[in-house]
Amino acid sequence: MDACMLCPRMCGVDRESGEKGYCGMDGKLRAARAALHMWEEPCISGTRGSGAVFFSGCSLRCIFCQNYEIAQGNCAREISGDRLSEIFLELQEQGAANINLVTATHFAPAVIGALKKAKAQGMYLPVIYNSSGYERVETVQMLEEVVDVWLPDFKYMDPELAFACSKAKDYPEVAVAAIREMMLAGGRCEYDDNGYIQKGVIVRHLILPGHTKNSIAVLDELYETYGKDLTISLMNQYTPLPQVRDIPDLNRRVTKREYEKVLDHALDLGITQGFFQEGGTAKESFIPLFDYEGL
Fold first, then answer.
1. What's the structural domain count of the chain?
2. Is residue 5 in some structural domain?
3. What pLDDT digit, counting tens, does each position of 268-283 carry?
4. Which helix (H) or strand (E) holds 54?
5. Which tens digits make up the pLDDT trace of 199-232?
6. Which helix (H) or strand (E) holds 206?
7. In a domain, 9, yes or no
8. How far is it, in rounded angstroms, from Cα 243 to Cα 68?
9. Where is the binding site, in residues?
10. Is residue 175 situated within a structural domain?
11. CATH number at residue 35
C-alpha cells in the first residue's frame, strides 16, 4: 500500500507512510465491530448469525450509506493482523455460520494474511466478501484464494446516478467486470444441509426512491448476462439518514408501489433464484451499533 491501487479510485497514495486514500484510511488496519449479525439473507445469518467484521472506511462512500459513520472513517479502532486472525477464530467459537468481511477492499492484503493465519489455526467457516461491487478485477483475483462466497452490491446502471450518489461515474462498467470475475471464481450458490451458503455469488441491489428505472436496468443486465445461474437479493430497506435530508427523492423511503414495480419486473424476467424483502426493513434499528464490540 505504498502506492495504493487496491480500489478503482487508484489514488496511488502512500498509505504505509500514513497518507490517507480516497477510502479515508491509511495503512493501519481499522474496524468498528466484530459480532454475530442476524440481519443478512437467511442463508447467511440463519439462526446462528453471520460472523461480521465491519471494516472502517470505504472506497465508494455513497452519500446515502446506512453505515455512513464507519464509511466516512469516523468510527475506527486500530487492530493488528494477528488480532484480526483471533477475531475470526472467536466468531467461529461463538457459533457463527460464516466469516463476513464487510467493506474490506482497502485492507485486502492484511485481511488475506489474517485469514490464512486463522485457517492454519483451525478456522474452517466459509468466508463471505461483502462488497459495494466497486472493485478492481485484480483485487478480486487476489482474494480468490481465501474467499468462498461473493456478496457484491450492484447499485447503478445509470452513470449519472452513480456520480450523483457516489462520485463514481464508472461504477456500472466496474461492477459488471467485478461481478463477472466473482462468477468465474464462485459460480452458482451451494448450500449445506441446513441451508447455509458455502460457495457462490449473491448480488444485492438496493432500490433507491425515485429511481426504479435504474433498478430495472440493473436487473436486465444481470439476468441477460447470467440467467438462472445468478442469485439476486432485491432490497427495499433504504433508510433516509440525516445526511440526505435536503436531497430530493433520497430523503424518503421507497414506496410500496416502487418496490412492487421492481419486484414485478424481476418476476416477469424469470428471476427465480433470489431473495426479496417484505415489511419493516427500512428502519434505523436494523443498522448495527458501531461500538467496537468484539475488537
1. 1
2. no
3. 999 988 998 865 544 4
4. strand 50-55
5. 999 999 999 999 999 999 999 999 999 999 999 9
6. strand 197-206
7. no
8. 9
9. 58, 62, 65
10. yes
11. 3.20.20.70
